[in-house]
Design a protein that fits this description.
Largest sheet: none
Mean pLDDT: 89
Order of helices and strands: HHHH
Helix content: over 70%
Distance between the termini: 31 Å
Number of helices: 4
Shape: elongated
Number of strands: 0
Strand content: under 5%
Length: 150
């Protein structure tokens, strides 16, 4: 049975996106019960947090683009860039996880979710690495086959 790395990668990105959406929603649920939420930065209007909003947009859009491009692209260059993107997201997730351990009060349900997302990220790293290397091995095998005939 052949492994479909692209299918696995798309699935893992989708799980990751659902997880970070739930992470955001989990932070807002106290509002629906009349409780305050933890504020990272006081703001008086939307312009005060526009930088954060753009960063969040980028953080959500890049995985969506990765899903789309992974479904259609098969080039070596893309596989290398994609692997780098997965590593970047794993580093960002780990950093976010560590920093949230210093927020008071520590919200352990959020920490548990971020640990799960970190492991999803590691699985995504591993799968993306295997997909990247598969391309190299396929090219080497094809090159060896062509060399043996000439």
């Amino acid at each position: 049975m052949t492994v479909n790395y692209r299918e696995r990668i798309i699935t893992l990105w989708a799980v990751f996106l659902l997880g970070i959406l739930f992470h955001t929603q989990l932070n807002l649920i106290p509002l629906f019960h009349g409780l305050p939420v933890i504020e990272s930065q006081k703001a008086t209007n939307i312009n005060d947090i526009s930088g954060i909003m753009w960063l969040m947009l980028g953080f959500f859009v890049l995985p969506m683009l990765a899903i789309i491009v992974t479904a259609f692209a098969n080039s070596k260059r893309y596989r290398i860039i994609h692997f780098g993107l997965t590593v970047f997201y794993s580093i960002m997730n780990l950093l976010h996880l560590v920093l949230d351990l210093f927020v008071q009060p520590v919200l352990w349900y959020q920490i548990a979710l971020m640990v799960l997302l970190f492991f999803v990220g590691l699985l995504l790293n591993t799968t993306a690495f295997q997909w990247m290397r598969l391309h190299n091995r396929a090219n080497q095998s094809q090159h060896n086959l062509e060399s043996s005939h000439f």
